[in-house]
Amino acid sequence: MKQINDFEITDYIEKNIRTFHDRRLQSLQNLKLDKVLKRKNPYLFKAKNITTPEAFVRMLLDAHLSSQEEGIFGDFLEGLAIFINKKIYNGHKSGSEGIDLEFQMNGIYYIVSIKSGPNWGNSSQIKKMKDNFNKAKQRLNTSGANINVVAVNGCCYGRNIKEHKGDHIKKCGQSFWTFISEDENLYTRIIEPLGYKAKKRNDEFFEEYGKVIGRFTKQFIDNYCSQDGSIILWDKIVKLNSALQLPKMTKTI
């Protein structure tokens, strides 16, 4: 088994973390107010007693960005896991649908579906993952190689006490990072380099965030508030979000 040193890990992270920051900023810059309104639950915002346009816009934008960032950063962590495993076990990105990593260790051939955290999907999504595992196993078994294939759902953070799920194994947090590297401390070794230029990139992000808040608030007042901007027209928001026929907008947003 090969080893990977801190310099190699840091070098990979510093070269690739910029992709996370770039995609995060680009996602913010490309947002349109009406598209975000269509994706979020208007009843939830009403139940939270949001009464001012800016408060509504901030909560709407923060909810959207939180889910977006989780997916973008999940892609980065998946790439990091594959990079580390390749260095140690010569693993590689899988060509099978829904499988992210394949590698061999101690006579076992592992197929791995990598997710951010342990609570990543509902029952139908988990069923889809299991179907992908079965298809990948069938592909490997018909390739002519006599190998023992084990399916693993790897989660980059969190805990999972019962790892054996019958037809696959679920490893989370320290257990996952140890599994792909045989280094029990890897899950802590990767945390420090993630802060590379984080302040500078976050400053850029929040400068743009402030611009979007200002732009969205003005658009929101123009389209979803009374003439003096004091009353949110909730029925209009619900119609945009849920009506069979979209209402006409006073402005393109």
- What is the radius of gyration computed over CA atoms, rounded to a whole number of angstroms? 23 Å
Fraction in beta strands: 5-15%
For the largest beta-sheet, the strand count, sense and barrel status come to: 5 strands, mixed
What's the CATH topology name of the largest domain? Answer: type ii restriction endonuclease, domain 1
- Helix/strand/pairing category: alpha/beta
Q: Strand-and-helix sequence, N→C? A: HHHHEEEHEEHHHH
Count of separate structural domains: 2
Strand order of the largest sheet: 1-2-3-4-5
- Low-confidence runs: none
Distance between the termini: 56 Å
The overall average pLDDT, rounded, is 90
Text of the CATH class of the largest domain? Mainly Alpha
CATH architecture of the largest domain: Orthogonal Bundle
How is the topology of this model organized?
Layout: H1 6-29, H2 33-39, H3 42-47, H4 53-89, E1 92-93, E2 101-105, E3 108-115, H5 123-141, E4 148-155, E5 169-172, H6 174-181, H7 186-189, H8 198-224, H9 234-242
Parallel strand pairs: 3-4, 4-5
Antiparallel strand pairs: 1-2, 2-3
Helix pairs in contact: 1-4, 1-8, 2-9, 4-8
Observed structural traits:
253 residues; alpha/beta; type ii restriction endonuclease, domain 1
Overview of this structure, please?
The chain is α/β, with parallel strands linked by helices. The protein has two domains: 1-90 and 197-253, type ii restriction endonuclease, domain 1; 91-186, no CATH class. 56% of the residues lie in helices and 11% in strands. The chain has helices spanning 6-29, 33-39, 42-47, 53-89, 123-141, 174-181, 186-189, 198-224, 234-242; strands at 92-93, 101-105, 108-115, 148-155, 169-172. A five-stranded mixed β-sheet has the order 1-2-3-4-5, sandwiched between helices. Helix 5 (123-141) links the parallel strand 3 (108-115) and strand 4 (148-155). Helix 1 packs antiparallel against helix 4 (53-89) and helix 4 runs antiparallel to helix 8 (198-224). The chain is elongated and about 70 Å long. The N and C termini lie far apart (56 Å). The mean pLDDT is 90.
